[in-house]
Amino acid sequence: MFNLFLIVHIITGSICLISGLSAMTARKKRGRHTISGDIYHGSYVVVLVTSIAMAVLHWEESAHLFYIALFSYGLAFTGYLAVKMRWSNWLSFHLSGMAGSYIGIVTAVIITNISGIPVLNALPELWYWFLPTIIGTPLIIMTSRKYTSPKVR
Length: 153
Prior knowledge:
Layout: H1 2-25, H2 32-57, H3 59-85, H4 90-113, H5 125-148
Helix pairs in contact: 1-2, 1-4, 2-3, 3-4, 4-5
């Protein structure tokens, strides 16, 4: 049973990585951006469910998946709801939620597969947990400023 969840998890995690990148690089309007975003969110739901299932089945080896998935999906859900419900300051919530969840899934991929990634596997183990955040946070800040700051004319 664990292997079935793992296969589905890997497939949907890969879909998240691809569709998230597609949404990030697309023009921010209806079309590729929104379609990719919906695929990203739907795949992330499956990643969350499979992470929980695998953690329950093999808690000692997979507990970290539970925590990463819960936190990361919480960010994705916040970003998704913000745009769907058009909260006050929805764009900031959308950008930070979706980008933060992408950092989460990249972090999960790195810590799970680090032994096979040249150069990175030579870093101290703690770096695996923080490197995506160290790289991604300034990108989130720059993107947020680009889309939410008042335009100076």
